[in-house]
């Protein structure tokens, strides 16, 4: 079957992504109530019983809100590094010992023929990570909630077929917005979130023939819009001499209130 995925929902109010290769199905984050997670799964024709585990990027509530209830309801193992486990333990509640699984930053784990690798990112959390998924020669990267893209991040995602990548805010919208300055400074800082412009700069550095699609994720409802995100990312790429045809490479939307269509990573 190869790798398939759907971004169930993405934004400041909640995040969850489903990845499968037909043999193994994994949920990345569970930032909604258990009921809402079930609704999102049903919209993509998946039952909770079909999931084999949950991978956690970091402990912020928009990534773990429904983690405990979902894991207990379906008796699912949770994979996170030790610092993230320590930071989210109270919020998650009681989890069976056999379902408390450690996946250290920079480590990989095989789930049958589906390989998962974690890598560290810069964000104001205990030890935040992003993930790469491999099935044969296919590669999907899911990388959000980072203040800047380090050389290690660029190396980790550069040879992906498809990337789910943060484009959180428009800088001017954020600066003119209603948030207090201390929150704006956090978002704009190296431990905050990628702006549209920063995402475009990153893509101009790593875009190659292999990368087919980038899903712009974790958009702020206050300080961004899908059309603006696509336009700004593309403009920042073109400003740095990176031009492309839509037939060769696509910028795709994610949504805060509904799933993206299933996407088969190998599709041209």
TrEMBL record:
The molecule here is called MBL fold hydrolase
Cross-referenced InterPro entries:
Metallo-B-lactamas, RibonucZ/Hydroxyglut_hydro, WalJ/YycJ-like
Which reaction is this enzyme known to catalyze? Answer: 3',5'-cyclic CMP + H2O = CMP + H(+); 3',5'-cyclic UMP + H2O = UMP + H(+)
Domain called Metallo-beta-lactamase: residue spans: 13-218
Q: Which UniProt keywords apply?
A: Hydrolase
- Mention any Pfam family matching this sequence: Lactamase_B_2
Molecular-function annotations in GO:
hydrolase activity
């Amino acid at each position: 079957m190869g790798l398939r995925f759907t971004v169930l929902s993405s934004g400041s109010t909640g995040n969850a992504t489903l990845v499968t290769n037909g043999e193994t199905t994994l949920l990345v984050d569970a930032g909604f109530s258990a009921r809402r997670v079930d609704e999102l799964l049903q919209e993509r024709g998946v039952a909770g019983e079909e999931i084999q585990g949950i991978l956690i990027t970091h402990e912020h509530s928009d990534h773990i809100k429904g983690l405990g209830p979902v894991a207990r309801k379906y008796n699912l193992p949770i994979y996170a590094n030790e610092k993230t486990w320590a930071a989210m333990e109270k919020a998650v509640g009681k989890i069976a010992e056999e379902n408390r699984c450690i996946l250290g930053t920079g480590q990989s784990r095989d789930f049958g023929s589906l390989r998962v690798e974690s890598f560290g990112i810069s964000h104001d959390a205990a030890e935040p990570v992003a993930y790469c998924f491999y099935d044969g020669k296919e590669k999907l990267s899911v990388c959000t909630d980072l203040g800047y893209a380090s050389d290690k991040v660029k190396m980790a995602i550069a040879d992906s077929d498809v990337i789910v990548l943060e484009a959180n805010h428009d800088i001017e919208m954020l600066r003119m917005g209603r948030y207090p300055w201390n929150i704006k400074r956090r978002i704009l800082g190296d431990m905050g979130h990628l702006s549209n412009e920063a995402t475009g700069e990153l893509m101009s550095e790593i875009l190659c023939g292999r990368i087919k699609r980038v899903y712009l994720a974790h958009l702020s409802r206050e300080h961004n819009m899908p059309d603006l995100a696509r336009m700004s990312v593309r403009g920042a790429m073109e400003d740095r001499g990176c031009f492309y045809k839509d037939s060769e490479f696509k910028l795709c939307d994610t949504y805060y209130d509904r799933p993206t269509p299933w996407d088969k990573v190998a599709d041209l």
